[in-house]
Each structure stands twice: as C-alpha cells, then as structure tokens.
Amino acid sequence: MKVRVYIADTPAEAWHIRNVLEQHNIVAHLRNETLFGATGEIPVLESLPEVWVAPGDAAEAEALIKQNRRQPEPSANWRCEQCGESIEGVFAVCWRCGAPAAEP
To answer: What pTM did the predictor assign?
Structure first.
C-alpha cells in the first residue's frame, strides 16, 4: 500500500520531487505522469502527476517536500565596489562592469 504525498503541476516537477526523496533513501513512485498530455480530454485533477511513498515514509517525505518547495530568502541588494552601481541581491556580478559581489 502507498500513500500520496504530492500532486505536481508537471511531470518534470514530479520527477524532481521523486529524485529529492530518493536521495534521502525514500522509495517514491509516480502516478499519472503519462496522463498529463491528456489534460483537457480528461479532468485536470485526474491528469496531474502524483508522488506516492510507503506509509512509514510519508511524514519524512512530506517534510522534505515542504523544505524543498520553500522559497529562498531574498538576498540584500548590494553596491558594486568597482563602479558604484546598485545591484539587486539575486545577482552575484555587476551588470554594468562585471565585477563580482564582495564576500559578506
């Protein structure tokens, strides 16, 4: 017997979650991955890929999925030491002069 721990938006997302779980020694199985192409012909909720695990692994799997799906903390904006340009925190290199961000 298996329990569903995740419903993905795409087959690629389902495979990613499966791979994350298997890296933590949780055997995961995908269901409905081939039905995704039939979306529209069959109801959407019946065609979304699902990730299933053994009941004893469900709590750990759900915790890993939650951790994996968490949005990263936004990085603080920084000022380039070379040219003085203000750079958004998601960038590690100045868009104007190409200088790398200073180490924190």
So the answer is: 0.64
